[in-house]
Amino acid sequence: MKIQLFIPCFVDQLYPQTGMNMVKVLEKLGCDVSYNPSQTCCGQPAFNAGYKNEARVVGSKFLADFSDKSKVVGPSGSCTGFIRNYYESLFENSSDHILCKQVSGNVYEFSEFLINVLNADNVGAELNGKATYHDACGALRECGIKHAPRQLLANVKGLELVEMKEAETCCGFGGTFAVKFEPISIGMAQVKVKSALDTGAKYIITTDVSCMMHMQGYIDHNNLPIRTMHIADVLASGW
Hints:
By secondary structure, the chain is an alpha/beta fold. Helices cover 50% and strands 15% of the residues. It folds into 2 domains: 2-116, no CATH class; 126-235, Rossmann fold. The longest helix has 16 residues, at 182-197.
């Protein structure tokens, strides 16, 4: 199957290995992966900050970059959710409206693509230790992604997956929320990480590197015995 690779800003700038690991898994499963190097942002940061006109300009470039009718796969429920749920209103009554419907209907978050499109729940990964899963807000609330990541993780050899009480609670990042409301954001990270630690887990696994970055910052600052991992990095482990 031919797919286009969408690499969000945080992955591009801070976690490039996560993008490479996603490609590694997709190619192992027989996908023909292409990457358009001219791609940039999907426009979500500007949109969330209230700059809709600027978001529309960036979004128009995204639509042009992914105008091919093949499926688009990215390691982010947040970006996927934004494109699916907000592009239609952003480009309503514009010349990009038809293209918007085509592209937004072809965008998938990585784990849901593996389960719902490729029907692949076991990629031969191996990672020893206990882990817990964090439901990133974009993935859970905007894409309805709940079971796909857990189904994939359940088949990782050596990994014991345990649920934490605050699995669906926001980690506190929320883009500029973490900057504008720093004390609240840190308090939310504290609740999330404590809940994960209470399970005895060694890893907090999620679909979004923005959540990873925020929680890992709190973990590092407090020298806590746990670390975050993106699901693509987990699935590329051990082979």
